[in-house]
Amino acid sequence: MPATVVVGTQWGDEGKGKFTDLVAAEMDVVVRYQGGHNAGHTLVVSGETFKIQLVPSGVLYEHITPVIGNGVVVDPRVLIAEMDGLEARGVDCSSMRLSGNAHLIMPYHTELDALHERHLGKAKLGTTKRGIGPAYADKSMRIGLRVQDLLDPPIFRAKLEAALSHTNKVLAKVFNRLPMNAEDIAREYLGGCAERLAPHVTDTVTLLHEALESGQQVLMEGAQGTFLDLDHGTYPFVTSSNPVVGGACTGTGVGPRHIDRVIGITKAYVTRVGSGPFVTELFDEVGDHLVEVGGEFGTNTGRRRRTGWFDMVMMRQAVRLNSITEVALTKLDVLDGLERLKVCVAYELDGERFEHMPYHQSVIHKAVPVYTELEGWSTDLSGVTRSSQLPAAAADYIAFLEEGIGVPIRLVGVGPGRSQYLDWQEAA
Fold first, then answer.
1. What tens digit of pLDDT does each residue of 247-299 get?
2. 88-122: per-residue pLDDT in tens?
3. pTM, whole model, 2 decimals?
């Protein structure tokens, strides 16, 4: 059976959690393929809000097997706290499965993340300081510890000692910090963490292939977004992994032959958290409107998000990078009440026009947006359930985006609730 991938097309925070949750209703397995607890998904179900960091969004369905793939970096303390919090609210996490090959975020990773960011000063990257980057760095340096190491205490201790022999020198000589004690870390991780997670640890590659071979529907869920991708994003203001669809293959062990549907999640406007270029960024009352009405504050960090008009240049690149087959448009209702709307259709710099993403960072930093203006609408969209109920201006906005994107827009979100959406293709 073919697999489906849900991918963010902007800088994350596109509303992937809600639409992954919606698509999950027809799935059997939902697997998270990259990132860590630096990414948060917010789901609103029957008036209840769930903020999920590591556990795949499909956990709210009883029939779903939620899987954390090998491409994810896991802080076991955070994962256990999240599972405990969900179970306290009646959500059963017993079926969740965790790849033994996923790498662990260690206490020294969190410390190093904060120290590196502070050391950069004004050139800081805007990381969440959760240890994600240092954990992926250790993975690349081949001194990382994996989930499976929790199940073998002698191996865990040996690998921890080897990692700390390097890391403690950095802490002491570069940042003038006290070295970390291996025994203290081992006691915490091999104690409650290992015991709590052991029942969930498995060979997720085999699990996923057996699911596909038996005809089950598998959904692959990314974190962050396309332009935070380590290779294809606005480097260096990116994450430490690959949110693009290619990352779904490496982060799960499922090859591209099995993927036939890629859902690109995009906001009806654009946001980003932290530093980095943002061609359509707004610094006026419209930007404030998007923040206030859209609740644009980080799920995990609470940081105010930067806001801007929809960027078609970014979206065209996202379609290329991810082989997107359909789009889910989120937060259309946030544009309610704006008299005029703008869509960036190209960039311009020194008389040169760019309709596709410039490869050079200097162009992206200096380019100005070329806008097309459209009519806004005053209608409250939060109760709309069918395309035919949309005001003409809202329908025109969706149609304009769809034509520019070049792939069908299917689902359109008009509120945070699970049922607040419509099927755009239904009336097409």
1. 999 999 999 999 999 999 999 999 999 899 999 999 999 999 999 999 998 76
2. 999 999 999 999 999 999 999 999 988 877 666 55
3. 0.92
CA 398/CA 378 separation, integer angstroms: 16
Cis peptide before 107 (omega within 30 of 0): no
- CA–CA–CA angle 266, 272, 278 (5° rounding): 100
CB atoms under 10 Å from CB of 298, counted, come to: 18
Distance (Å) of CA 267 to CA 12, 74, 136, 181: 10, 28, 28, 45
Catalytic center residues: 13, 41
Cα–Cα distance list, 31 to 64, 69, 109, 120, 337 (Å): 10, 6, 25, 35, 38
Query: Which burial class, exposed, middle or buried, applies to 202 when counting CB atoms under 10 A from its CB (0-12, 13-18, 19+)?
Result: middle
HSE (side-chain half, CA atoms, 13 Å) at 416: 16
Would the CA dihedral through 191, 194, 195, 197 be positive or negative? Answer: positive
Number of helices (H), then strands (E), in the chain: 13, 20
Q: Give me the DSSP letters along 315-342.
A: HHHHHHHHT--EEEEE-GGGGTT-SEEE
Per DSSP, helices labelled H in 41-104 are: 76-88
8 Å CB contact between 374 and 286: no
CB 172 within 8 Å of CB 180: no
Length of the chain measured in residues: 428
Structure tokens at 201: 């640890």
Question: What is the residue whose two structure tokens read 């017993």?
Answer: 94
289 with 275: CB under 8 angstroms? no
Other C-beta atoms closer than 10 Å to the C-beta of 257 total: 9
